[in-house]
Amino acid sequence: MVITVPCLQDNYAYLIEDGQGGAAVVDPSEAGPVQRALAFRGVKLRAIWNTHHHWDHVGGNEELAVHEEIQVCASRHDQPRVPRVSKLLDDGDSFTFGPYTVKVIAVPGHTLGAIAYVLEEAGEVRAVFTGDTMFAAGCGRLFEGTPAMMHASLGRLTALPPATHVFPGHEYTVKNLEFAVALEPDNAILHKALESARGIRERGLPTVPSTIERELATNPFVRVDEAAIRSSVGLDSSASDVEVLAAVRAKKDSF
User: Fold this and answer.
1) Are 52 and 132 in contact (CB under 8 A)?
2) Model's pTM, two decimal places?
3) What are the φ and ψ backbone dihedral angles of 210, each rounded to 5 degrees?
4) What is the rounded distance in angstroms from the CA atom of residue 194 to the CA atom of residue 200?
5) What is the rounded CA–CA span in Å between residue 15 and residue 23?
């Protein structure tokens, strides 16, 4: 079971319960909301899984990892920059947590050490925690990586089964879909998705999780082969997908 925990202004942490009275938390930007969620659920924190080193994803590590038995996982690349890290992960690593197998995918682009955690249960992929690499209808700014890195990383994520639930690091869905509609104003699917997301937010609820299937239909950063998107950024069929992603990212940065 995955519990969404709003933090800061628009961050999300996530509790994954192991069915045995314990839980892991993904990207605790602050300790308070996570501690309250743990108490409400009646579970104890066993592990912290960080997707990357930015403060709004690791800010709660110090306060939460007060006991040595709480394992703090992060990319080996981020070792000097993640507080309390005790388990270093590489692309392709896997470990078990309760009934789950957790597989690690390197997804550089937003940062060089970004990783995603893929949750499998009974041999089936259930969820992926994407940090700031993939958002609902968006992707993270390229602070450390390149457009080619981000394109490859998004490709790895969208290769997961269509029904996979996508749990991103922020509540950016409405703004991302507004941008997607601006790129493809004639796309009815995008208009419907935006209307739905606005309604969800008006009720004070999270728009996450998304799904891989939904991202393939609505996320302009994984749909860079679409003629309408290329036209909106002044490129045609002769441009590479990486060139289009770079142009879409630059346009989004000033949107």
Assistant:
1) yes
2) 0.98
3) -95, -170
4) 10
5) 6
